[in-house]
Amino acid sequence: MTLIAFTGNRFLADETLRDTLAARGLNARDLPRLAGEDVTPDTLRPHLSPGLFGDGGLIVDFEGVKPDKALLELLASAAVTVAVLDESPPATRVKLYEARGEIVASPAPSKPGDVTGWVVQRCKRQKLNLDRDASAYLAEVFGPDLAGIAGELNKLALLDGPFTRDTVQRVVGREPPGDSFAMLGAATAGRPGEAVTQLRRLLASGEDPFKMMGAVVWQYSLVARCVALQQQDGRVTEAVAAQKLGVKPYPAKKALEVARRLNEARIRTHLERILAADLAMKRGLDAGVALERLIVQLSV
Question: Mind listing the pLDDT tens digit for each residue in 188-204?
Answer without folding.
Answer: 778 888 888 888 888 87
